[in-house]
Amino acid sequence: MCRFLAYHGTPIYLEDLVASPSHSLIQQSIHAVESRSETNGDGFGIGWYGERPRPGLYREIHPAWSDENLISICGQVRSHLFFAHVRAATGTATMRANCHPFSAGKLLFMHNGQVGGWRAIRRQIEALIPDALYGSRIGTTDTEALFLAAQARGLEDDPPRAIAETLGLVQAEMERANIGAALRFTAALTDGETIWAFRWASDNAPATLYYNQSDDRLIVVSEPIDERRDEWRAVPPGSVLTAAHGRGAVLAALAPARP
Q1: How far apart (Å, rounded) are the C-alpha atoms in residues 247 and 190?
Q2: Mean predicted confidence (pLDDT) in 195-209
Q3: Distance (Å, rounded) from C-alpha 244 to C-alpha 247?
Q4: Check whether domain 3-253 has CATH 3.60.20.10, yes or no
Q5: CA 141, 144, 147, 149 torsion: positive or negative?
Q6: Are 81 and 216 in contact (CB under 8 A)?
Q7: pLDDT for the residue numbered 258
Q8: Do residues 111 and 96 touch, judged by C-beta distance below 8 A?
Q9: Residue 62 CB burial class (10 angstroms; 0-12, 13-18, ≥19)
Q10: What is the DSSP track for the chain?
Q11: Residues 94, 61: contact at Cβ < 8 Å?
């Protein structure tokens, strides 16, 4: 499983969360505490918003802990909204095209989870991506396939509905193929203004997800990045958290829409 972090609030340097805290995301790439995979060294990525509506991206296949360019960029880039992700591959190649976050126009998306039996039903899941979007698929991950399939179902207009519909279709394909492994979906999405964070799994064992909110910021993480555990609240299983700058986070139920 992977680890990720999302930030929205007063502009800060990326290093303030990605590198500096005692249990920063870079530290989690070496030693995650609440992950099935202690080491998340199969690549990393950061995505951030600046003066333009489209986000900037830097993704690499090196472990986050060994990339000097990542440290330099995080020490120079200041942003009001950014994503960061360290990857533990679940059966797909370690290559740049498979590193999160993924982008499309103004959207950024990252995921920690799995489509159970991915290799057995990859073709069926990719069939959920229309021809107009399939040309955008450059990697081989289930995450990118989910992202593109959700775009075809109105992700930019109504993210919770599009995600629920996509999860329902994927779960139906898994059942048709008699796949016993779980569908797990802990993810974050943003359009540069609002963050949506999802925590759901078909086996009621979703990957961990926490948030920390104050008057001027929201941080969403796979696991807390510091020792102040009392300041972090778990996103409940089967939920989506929605937060725009200047407004409090709102939690709502998330359930796949069955076809």
Answers
A1: 15
A2: 96
A3: 6
A4: yes
A5: negative
A6: no
A7: 81
A8: no
A9: middle
A10: --EEEEEEEEEEETHHHHTSSTT-HHHHHH--SSSS-S---S-EEEEE--SSSSPEEEEESS-GGG-HHHHHHHHH-EEEEEEEEE---SSS--SGGGSSPEEETTEEEEEEEEETTHHHHHHHHHTTS-HHHHTT--S--HHHHHHHHHHTTTTTT-HHHHHHHHHHHHHHHHHHTT--SPEEEEEEEE-SSEEEEEEEETTS-PPP-EEEEETTEEEEESS-SSS-GGG-EEPPTTEEEEEETTS--EEEE------
A11: yes
Beta strands 183-190 and 194-201, pairing class? antiparallel
Q: How far is CA 79 from the centre of its chain?
A: 18
**Tell me: the pLDDT tens digits for 156-201?**
999 999 999 999 999 999 999 999 999 999 999 999 999 999 999 9
> What tokens appear for 131 in the block?
């021809």
Confidence of residue 90 (pLDDT cuts 50, 70, 90): confident
Q: Measured at the alpha carbon of residue 147, what is the angle toward residues 145 and 150, in degrees to the nearest 5?
A: 105
Give CA torsion, residues 215, 221, 224, 226, to 10 deg: -60
> What type of residue sits at position 95?
M
Q: In one letter, which amino acid is 25? A: L
pLDDT > 80? residue 101: yes
> Is the preceding peptide bond at 101 cis, omega within 30 degrees of 0?
yes
Structure tokens at 63: 């472990």
Distance CA 82, CA 258 (A): 32
pLDDT in tens, 150-159: 999 999 999 9
The full set of domain ranges for the chain reads: 3-253
